[in-house]
Design goal:
Elements (H helix, E strand, L loop, with lengths): L12 H73 L5 H11 L5 E5 L9 H6 L3 H7 L4 E2 L3 E3 L4 E12 L2 E11 H4 L13 E6 L4 E4 L9 H7 L4 H12 L4 E7 L2 E9 L5 E8 L7 H31 L2 H24 L3 E6 L5 E4 L1 H7 L3 H4 L12 H14 L1 E9 L5 E12 L4 E9 L1 H23 L3 E6 L4 E4 L1 H7 L3 H4 L4 H4 L1 E4 L9 H8 L3 E2 L4 E4 L5 E12 L5 E10 L1 H15 L9 H13 L5 E8 L2 H8 L1 H18 L5 E6 L2 E7 L3 H13 L13 E8 L5 H39 L4 H17 L4 H13 L9 H4 L7 H7 L2 H10 L8 H6 L20 H15 L11 H10 L7 H15 L1
Antiparallel strand pairs: 1-5, 2-4, 3-4, 4-5, 6-7, 6-10, 8-9, 9-10, 11-12, 11-15, 13-14, 14-15, 16-17, 16-22, 18-20, 19-21, 20-21, 21-22, 23-25, 23-26, 24-25
């Protein structure tokens, strides 16, 4: 490879001199031709510059004339406006006062009658009434330029008519001196002695700054000035173009520059003339300066070239030595390239083809140098072309770059190579010098490591527990998703922070700081579990109960690299355990302690050394009948009310236990029997009504006293239970009587049936019973049935009982339950047990279509058959919510229609006879 290229040319002395002279001759000829071309170009640019400068000058003067006339005109018009608003003041007085305050433009006034004899008379006569007509039309007039003998100055008038009621009555006018707007000589940085003229479009001279008194026609004057007709036409052309324009003409070997611009009034044009001699700088002078500087530059350059040539000519020996050193360096570099064990490749940046490769690269790719040189790099580098191009661009910018890319071997195998590349620029071409290293194994290990890392990351993020890792200084290195959620800190916030800052741990029972598990692991190098009852205070200040352990992270050499702590939120688990524990020792319905708690508590109390324990045993009267009549919810409420009543009168130290069913027990440590009896009395005196009824809460209570020794509390419970049952037997009958009376009162309140209904039924049942010669026992049962047959309706929804319209099928099903409810009430009451079956069957029909059992004929008890007729008659002859009462005759007809169907024929006829006799 040849990185450095040096080209040497051998000269003989004579040949070198001839070549040098030829070069000098060609150089001089080129300079002469160049100067000739540049001079012509300079002359053209020079003329354009002068014309442009004159145009600017002329346009500025024309604008000054127009602005001066505009200013005078505005001043007169302003004065006219002010004059119209001046009251009680003459025109002459107002004008005089105005000129004193504003002397810039002196304004005069004259009437139209005096205009021919006044100051304006000469001007008006000279124009044969033309200006006069303009004034009568209300137009502003700009006069021609006149000469004042008195002031010996040229001037012009600006005249504005005064109009009243559409008639011009006078004029206001002012004077503008020509010297103020058009000096006779203008100088600038470009030229001097510029001449100006004002002409009309037909060439009529209005004013000439260099010959003011000259009149006539400009074009005639130029003709007399021996100008060619073509030059005169060019001047006329720039005047009539009606915009700023310029031209030149030649006279007596001198160039004249002419510029014209419209003034804007009276179709006047301003012309400016300047001769070439009056231009302050010359193209010849400029060219001479350029040539002078160029000759000096050429001389110095030639001198330098001669010195360099001399040095080159007389130092060939040193050059040969340098060439030898360069050749040695080239050979050495080529050897380093070819013989190095690293893979080396030279690439042409423009074509992306391989220029050279060393032997190691040939051996690695599998081929000879001829197989590889000239091939496109894309045949080997498997990166997409756009990425490879991007890498080349980065290499060109940074001069050195690194790229890892897959390469294809000759046998088709793909290997990963690290490519270190830099740009070599020898002035003629850019090459990319690349050194390549096989990293296939490294990349395989790297990919395996990345897969393991990703698997670990996914595992940590997917695991249901929180995971936090620290280094051996206790600084957090990672958090998984669960840990982020529990702590309230993101990984970005927590990584690099001390463990104790992110994990604030304390004992949830004492509130004291918990031990740092990370520090414990680092000190003991063993697995450490979290203390019991540890809670985490998260970023928001919320507490989270946590559990689990921390373990050391060790290297293969057993070096502690850090700690991993796995923890989980046990708040819900703890709450569930607490709930399970609560339910295992508490009654689910009432919330007081249960029998299991009592069995475990009694031995503890007996071992505690208490001096005394009082025991109260309580039984809830009527629980079963309450369930039967009002439903189990009412029974549950009865038990809850009982528990609440006991909690109301017991202290926090007293132990209330539901033994099961309708029994409760109260253990009162360190209370004597008198205190227990006091609590019993307070409970008895409490007025509590069963919800949904008027039934009062009825309890049977008994108490006993234990001295605290082993077995004494259990004995006291048995003794209290004995006293409780004795009270229950004593109060049972009165409770049942009260219960039945209350049920009847509730029935009358819930339904529309009054107590009179029961009495009427009892009356007719008694009459039929006498007719049938029933025994006194049967008569008592019949009377009791008449009174209590509908007792089961206390368990029916009052809305059904009082519904004014027809019942639905579901409501009828509910209504048909009342015989069964009444049956259960009677069965639970010994005094009513004899009529329980009668209450159950009192809605059976003679034809077997009744309920609940569908009995027929004489299978139906006699008392029920009697009640069926009597109850129906009373129902028909009295008002109900769903209909009005029938007459007695209509009721008898209804009974007769249902003989043998609903009613026993014999009983029905007896009822009809009794009714008939009663009416008679």
């Amino acid at each position: 490879m040849k990185i450095i290229k040096n080209k040497f040319v051998s000269f003989t002395n004579m040949r070198s001199v001839l070549i040098l002279l030829l070069c000098v001759l060609l150089f001089i000829t080129s300079i002469v031709l160049l100067f000739s071309r540049e001079r012509a170009k300079l002359n053209a640019e020079y003329e354009g510059m002068i014309s442009t400068a004159l145009n600017i000058h002329t346009e500025s003067d024309g604008e000054a004339i127009k602005n001066s006339i505009d200013g005078a005109k505005r001043s007169i018009q302003t004065t006219e406006t002010m004059l119209r608003h001046a009251e009680n003041e003459s025109v002459e007085s107002f004008i005089k006062r105005r000129n004193e305050t504003n002397p810039t433009y002196k304004i005069d006034y004259t009437t139209m009658e005096d205009i021919r004899t006044g100051e304006l008379s000469s001007f008006i006569r000279s124009r044969e009434q033309e200006e006069l007509q303009q004034l009568f039309r209300g137009e502003t007039v700009i006069s021609k330029i006149c000469y004042s003998e008195e002031e010996q100055e040229y001037f012009l008038y600006v005249i504005v008519p005064l109009i009243e009621n559409g008639v011009t009555t006078g004029v206001l006018y002012t004077v503008i001196y020509v010297d103020d707007i058009l000096p006779d000589q203008h100088d600038s940085a470009v030229y001097q002695d510029v001449k100006s003229s004002i002409v009309e479009s037909n060439g009529t001279l209005i004013f000439n700054s260099f010959v003011p008194e000259e009149k006539g026609n400009l074009f005639n004057a130029l003709s007399d000035f021996n100008l060619e007709k073509e030059d005169i036409r060019k001047i006329a052309g720039i005047i009539r173009s009606n915009e700023i324009n310029s031209t030149t003409f030649e006279r007596a070997n001198q160039t004249y520059y002419v510029s014209a611009v419209p003034v804007g009034y009276n179709q006047w044009f301003l012309l400016s003339f300047v001769r070439e001699p009056d231009v302050l700088f010359r193209s010849t002078n400029i060219f001479r300066d350029v040539v002078r500087v160029s000759i000096i530059t050429i001389f110095l350059t030639s001198l330098l070239a001669f010195v360099l040539f001399y040095q080159f000519l007389f130092n060939k020996k040193e050059l040969r030595a340098e060439k030898s050193r360069n050749q040695n360096l080239t050979d050495r570099l080529q050897a380093m390239f070819d013989q190095h064990s690293a893979l080396k490749v030279l690439i042409d940046m423009k074509t992306n083809t391989i220029v050279d490769v060393n032997n190691a690269a040939c051996s690695y790719y599998g081929g000879t140098k001829e197989d590889l040189v000239g091939k496109s790099i894309h045949e080997f580098n498997q990166l997409p072309e756009k990425y490879l191009k991007k890498g080349f661009n980065e290499t060109d910018k940074s001069k050195i770059s690194f790229l890892a890319a897959p390469h294809k071997m000759k046998n088709g195998e793909i290997k990963i190579l690290d490519v270190y590349a830099s740009v070599i620029d020898d002035g003629e071409e850019k090459l990319i010098y690349s050194i390549l290293f096989d990293t296939t194994d490294r990349e395989r290990f790297r990919n395996e490591l990345l897969r393991e890392k990703e698997l670990l990351r996914t595992t940590l993020r997917s695991i249901g527990d929180g995971v936090v890792t620290t280094d051996n200084q206790g600084m957090i290195t990672s958090l998984n998703n669960v840990a982020e959620k529990l702590t309230g800190w993101t990984s970005k916030e927590a990584i690099g922070q001390p463990f104790t800052k992110i994990f604030v741990l304390e004992n949830e029972e004492t509130g004291l700081p918990a031990r740092n598990p990370i520090q414990q692991v680092l000190e003991t190098e063993t697995v450490v579990g979290l203390d019991a009852h540890t809670q985490l205070i998260n970023k928001k200040g919320e507490t989270v109960s946590i559990a689990d352990s921390a373990a050391p992270i060790q290297s293969n050499l057993s070096e502690i690299l850090g700690v991993v702590m796995v923890f989980r939120d046990v708040s819900e688990e703890k709450a569930r355990n607490q709930k399970i524990e609560f339910l295992s020792y508490h009654d689910a319905l009432t919330g007081v302690f249960n029998r299991r708690y009592l069995d475990e508590k009694i031995p503890k109390l007996e071992r505690s050394g208490l001096e005394a324990v009082s025991v109260i045993m309580i039984d809830v009267n009527g629980l079963k009948i309450t369930n039967d009549v009002f439903g189990h919810k009412a029974g549950d409420d009865l038990l809850k009310n009982t528990a609440q009543l006991m909690q109301l009168y017991c202290s926090e130290k007293d132990i209330i236990v539901r033994m099961g069913g309708d029994e409760f027990v109260i253990l009162m440590p360190n209370k004597n029997l008198e205190e227990a009896e006091q609590i019993i009395q307070e409970i008895k005196d409490a007025q509590v009504t069963i919800e949904g009824s008027n039934l009062p809460l009825s309890l049977s209570l008994g108490c006993a006293y234990a001295h605290g020794e082993k077995g004494s509390i259990s004995a006291a419970i048995q003794q209290a239970e004995k006293y409780m049952y004795q009270q229950k037997l004593l109060n049972g009958k009165s409770f049942r009587n009260s219960f039945i009376s209350t049920l009847l009162a509730t029935l009358y309140e819930k339904s529309n049936e009054a107590e009179e209904h029961s009495k009427r039924l009892e009356h007719f049942c008694h009459l039929i019973g006498k007719k049938l010669r029933l025994s006194s026992k049967e008569m008592d049962e019949l009377a009791l049935l008449a009174l209590l047959h509908d007792i089961g309706k206390v368990g029916i929804d009052p809305n059904i009982l009082k519904k004014p319209g027809a019942l639905t099928a579901e409501e009828w099903d509910e209504m048909r339950r009342h015989p069964e409810i009444g049956y259960r009430i009677a069965r639970e009451t010994p005094e009513l047990a004899g009529i329980a079956d009668l209450i159950l069957l009192h809605h059976e029909r003679w034809d077997g279509k009744g309920y609940p059992h569908g009995l027929s004929g004489e299978n139906i008890p006699l008392a029920c058959r009697i009640l069926a007729v009597v109850d129906s008659f009373d129902a028909m002859t009295n008002d109900r919510v769903y209909r009005k009462a029938m007459t007695v005759e209509e009721a008898i007809e209804e009974i007769e229609r249902n003989i043998g169907k609903q009613f026993d024929p014999q009983i029905a006829r007896l009822m009809i006879d009794i009714i008939t006799l009663s009416d008679e």
